[in-house]
Design brief:
Elements: H1 9-20, H2 25-48, H3 54-60, H4 66-86, H5 90-105
Length: 107
């Protein structure tokens, strides 16, 4: 998250490979819980202007992008739920989530 809007696609591929197998179910769930919690915290910090990660929140959620960040949080959570229900490709899901976050951070 801290490198965004730049993306280290090699690292993203490695992470998504590690989390995409059925043996990695708990790691996958923990990753998404962490990702969504972190994004929610950054949105909250950006909204209130208060929090330990204010500088990071301002960099990842530029001025005027707060609604898009909240939308991305919602979309990432919904996509994860749909992927689990329909047994869709987890690797593609993770990569799409990272891309969605990077788009929020770009101005």
């Amino acid at each position: 998250i801290e490198l965004m809007p730049k993306i280290d696609w090699t690292a993203v591929h490695k992470l998504s490979d590690e989390l995409s197998g059925t043996a990695a179910e708990q790691k996958f769930e923990a990753f998404y819980e962490f990702l969504l919690d972190q994004l929610a915290q950054l949105i909250r910090t950006r909204t209130t202007g208060v929090g330990p990660d204010l500088a990071l929140a301002k960099r990842l959620i530029p001025e005027g992008r707060l609604p898009r960040a909240a939308e991305a949080w919602s979309e990432i959570g919904a996509a994860k739920s749909q992927a689990m229900t329909l047994n869709l490709d987890r690797k593609a899901l993770i990569m799409a989530a990272v891309e969605k976050l990077a788009l929020v951070a770009r101005v």
